[in-house]
Design a protein that fits this description.
The chain has about 525 residues and is an alpha/beta fold. The strands form three sheets. Strands 2, 11, 13, 14, 16, 17, 18, 19 and 21 form a nine-stranded antiparallel beta sheet that branches. Helix 8 runs parallel beside helix 10.
Length: about 525
């Protein structure tokens, strides 16, 4: 039905009668109204809803945290560091004289330091003077020296081992307490132990056959650890040393068998069970690989496998991830050292603490491929700034997170993997900017859209300090520089780190997490019972 009518441009007067064509129009509108009412009474199907509007409603997430008791408590040195033997040049540790590097190390204290890796198999130590020193060159008087003046202040120390051979040794990390020193030192016991380990290192013993054509089973490895422990105890300086191992690789079937044999024999001998993890092994890497939730979740499966074996023989034994890298073979330039790699690193810290791993050692702090925190020119990379924020804000007590509106309904045959990851800890009690009882959230948003989070329950109407870390520069996710709340992070000078200034958010404000970013949020004055006491 069509109604065609031409309306006059103007009426001759206000009392003029309406045009004759208005009558059919009124009749047509009455018919449409009748049909509409009939449809509403007979057909109850809902009208279609705009999909975009529906998605916007789901972006609001309610978040609460259990504040009475922590679910886990990790080591004070939870985030620790490793130095790779590649830093040794011309037989001596030349980097230790750098004031800038010592400042960067001090920022990540307290921490354990592990000095080791596959290259230790090619190092030798002789108690001889440094020939470069006699010619007026730089460096210490001896090849390996106690740098307590520079390093102990940053809780990272190397111990002088006169006459100790660093060739043909197991790579074993020891923690010791000196009688006349108030600080803990980490050293490596470099000693020719047995013919079993001739020209071998104890890193990833499951790969001995591949690297050297000789295999060591878990039982034999356990027996040698027991013997090593018995040799250490009569020596005063090592009588209270802690022993860690076996530092296996990725827990595949053969590796689990080695760990099982080791724990059966020497589970009670070691102070912590150690293993290593590499996220991406032996293939080309793209920036989007670092955003894949399936890759982020591979670590969780490994943790469960290790815990199952450890708890079978020594329930409650501490477990350390003694070496974690994003990509193998030294990493990938402009990827492993970029902002994008931070998603893996921050998720690693959150997941390990949440599942009860006591310590994670980052490989490497300095100058090893592209997986390091500080580059060869002593410039801090994105993962360093991420680690610095973690150290400043995150305490050892882990809290349970409760969310509403985050999970979607799973479809048959499909696994839902969260692209929004939220972890909660008590705020670091050494940070005097916040009173005890405060809570720190750290959030990873892998979505391509922003997410809104409303604090509820005990967190409702509390003041929040935001530390939003984003890439800086035109490279985007590939950037090797970062900004904190819009301000680029750079060192003030060689002896001074920048001030990490938060952005205060008013009480009750919704947290808006930008797409593909990560950040820390300190909820002040919660007075959480779990966080009031050490």
């Amino acid at each position: 039905m069509r109604v065609l009518c031409a309306f006059p441009e103007a009426m001759s007067s206000s009392n003029s009668r309406p045009s004759a064509c208005l009558a059919p129009v009124a009749l047509y509108l009455a018919v449409l109204l009748h049909l509409s009412l009939s449809s509403q009474t007979g057909d109850r199907r809902p009208l279609p809803v705009d999909r975009a509007a529906g998605l916007k409603e789901k972006t609001l997430i309610l978040l609460d945290v259990s504040t009475k008791n922590p679910v886990r408590t990790v080591n004070e040195n939870f985030l620790s560091l490793q130095l790779d033997p590649s830093i040794i040049h011309d037989g001596w540790l030349d980097f230790l004289s750098s004031k800038r590097l010592v400042t960067l190390a001090r920022g990540l204290s307290p921490a354990f330091l592990r000095f080791g890796g596959k290259r230790t198999d090619f190092l030798q130590f002789q108690n001889l003077r440094n020939p470069a020193k006699s010619r007026g060159g730089p460096g210490p008087d001896y090849y390996l020296k106690n740098y307590e003046d520079d390093i102990v202040r940053s809780d990272v120390a190397l111990d002088k081992q006169k006459g100790c051979k660093i060739a043909q040794h197991p790579d074993i990390m020891l923690e010791l307490q000196r009688e006349k020193a108030a600080q803990m030192h980490l050293v490596l016991l470099k000693e020719q132990f047995s013919n079993t380990y001739s020209n071998l290192i104890l890193t990833e013993p499951n790969n001995y056959r591949t690297m050297h054509g000789r295999a060591v089973n878990g039982s034999q490895l356990g027996k040698d650890y027991i013997q090593l422990k018995s040799l250490l105890q009569p020596i005063r300086i090592y009588s209270r040393a802690s022993l860690y191992g076996p530092n296996i690789g990725r827990p595949r079937k053969n590796v689990i068998a080695l760990l099982d044999g080791f724990m059966k024999v020497a589970g009670s001998t070691v102070d912590a069970v150690t293993w290593q993890h590499c996220y991406i092994d032996g293939r080309a890497v793209k920036v989007m690989d670092f955003l894949k939730t399936r890759l982020l979740d591979t670590l969780s499966d490994q943790i469960r496998k290790i815990q199952k074996v450890v708890n079978t023989y020594t329930p409650g034994k501490k477990i350390w991830l003694e070496g974690v890298v994003t990509t193998s073979a030294g990493g990938t330039n402009n990827l492993s050292d970029s902002y994008a790699a931070g998603f893996l690193w921050l998720n690693t810290l959150g997941m390990l603490a949440n599942q009860g791993i006591d310590v994670v050692i980052r490989h490497s702090f300095f100058d090893h491929g592209y997986n390091h925190l500080v580059d060869q020119n002593f410039n801090p990379l994105p993962d360093y700034w991420l680690s610095l924020l973690y150290k400043r804000l995150i305490g050892p007590k882990v809290l349970a997170v409760h969310v509403a509106g985050l999970q979607r309904k799973p479809r048959p045959g499909r696994v839902i993997r969260d692209k929004l990851r939220i972890y909660a800890h008590c705020t670091n009690h050494h940070n005097h900017n916040y009173v005890r009882g405060s809570i720190t959230l750290f959030i990873i948003n892998l979505h391509r859209s922003r997410k809104k989070i409303k604090l509820a329950g005990t967190l409702r109407a509390k003041l929040v300090h935001q530390y939003l870390l984003q890439p800086y520069g035109q490279e985007g996710l590939r950037s090797r520089s970062v900004q904190l709340n819009g301000q680029p992070l750079v060192m003030v000078d060689d002896g001074t780190l920048p001030e990490l200034k938060p952005r205060p958010l008013r009480a009750g404000r919704t947290l808006v997490i930008p797409p593909v970013t990560m950040g820390f949020y300190v909820v002040k004055n919660v007075n959480a019972l779990a966080c009031r006491y050490r």
